[in-house]
């Protein structure tokens, strides 16, 4: 059994994986960064919170599916493995969990978690930090007075050409037609715009009819609340849709496919606005559904 490997795999798709009775492995995201020495891609690093120990069902559910076990057998195996972790940590003051990191217990009783430098961001898969090198370019020397004389020499042809152009008389009529007629022409043609007014009116009528169709689509959308009593999760959407239909045949009229999270498509018995409503519904379920669990998106 390699529970730590299973948790590490889940962290690529989930931000929080709770090991019941032990703690939660959390990830935090960092955007790409640029500094004086390197260019770093986006990252997703793991941390640990020992206060979050109550199971949310995710680890047991996915472990049972990957090992083809019942929910109860998967729960039993996970509890045994976590019990071994605790005994090993108390006895040796150290616990290494593969790709996740290392736990160290100090004489005062506090436990420190040092994560491994593994990037769980799927967006940055295969990308590594790039070390940058600065290229120093020489500053051009100032040649003093020589630079000034070059500037003066460059201006002489321009000054002479300008003098010869304006010193000669210019025919007024030719000058206006050739130099400015191109700018006057667009102003003369502005009245053409008003001839297309009827076309604009017809387009407005089409736009006014759109909201009705939009309202119909909104009404037909499934209402999914934040607290969901999950009946099952599937790798294929077609399997999730079949399971949804099966639940409705069994009397769960509000059963619905709620979302895809990670690699799984989730199907809920029903969704609720509050945790209390979700818990009350879960407790009211028949004994035929022991694997039901609550997913809260808040």
UniProtKB/TrEMBL annotation:
GO terms for molecular function: peptidoglycan binding. Residues 229-295 form the SPOR domain. Residues 2-56, 57-125 form the CCDC81-like prokaryotic HU domain. This is Sporulation related domain-containing protein. InterPro entries: HU-CCDC81_bac_1, HU-CCDC81_bac_2, SPOR-like_dom, SPOR-like_sf. It comes from the Bacteria.
